[in-house]
Amino acid sequence: MQIILNEKEHVKQLLNTSEDGSHGRSGLCKSARPAYELRLIARYYAQEYQLTPHKIYLKLIELMENAYDDFSIGTWQNFLLDCARDALKRPLVHMDFVPVTARELNVLAAQPEKPVRRVAFSMLCLAKYRNQAKEKNNDWINYAYRDIFKMANVSATIREQCQMIGLLCDRGLIHMNRIVDNLSLRVLFVDHSSSPEESGPILKITDFRNLGYLYRMYSGENFIRCENCGILMKPGKNGRKKYCTDCAPIVNVLKQRQRDAK
Ligand SMILES: [Zn+2]
Question: Which strand (E) or helix (H) includes residue 58?
Fold first, then answer.
């Protein structure tokens, strides 16, 4: 799950020709979730360039044809028409950061169990993100529990996840939707005080990857950022670790290419 604070920038990057130089291929061909990205791109064309739904539809087809050799219009037509038609329904999200206040951090610090703090912290950040992205969101979130726990850097079985969420409900930190099979949760300790002096933002969240590590770093533990993608990670034992497990192989290949070129 990826939380995007600036959807306009994200789309611009997607539409850029990919770095391997293959002509006209957008970042779409590397996307793990093209359907989600297509909706964003449609909104971008509608809101930045005021294209009509028909023109957006044609643009999306062009992008898909360039991105996928086996693209078949028959399979995608209805979806792309939907994207084009709905492009003005929701504005593109743009925020510089999600603020976490001292009051909120105090609530978290009062929880005896460290993993509980990290899970609650992640839920809080998500709720505040949703509040900024959508008017009248009222502190609700709807994400798969496994995604929230991954974000919080807490490994737990499904049973343990449910127990922890039950615990947070009992302590009055969250409220669960009663409808069975619905993952909606309402975070009850979002600080809505109006004056920043009252509880000014202490933490500015700009990256939702590894929120659990961010919380631990805030609590005084040592973490480093990948020099390529900026994700927070544990420092290596010898202090020489520079890249995360995703970036290390890519960086190695690039370095080897540079050596070969010499
Ligand atoms: Zn990385």
Answer: helix 53-67
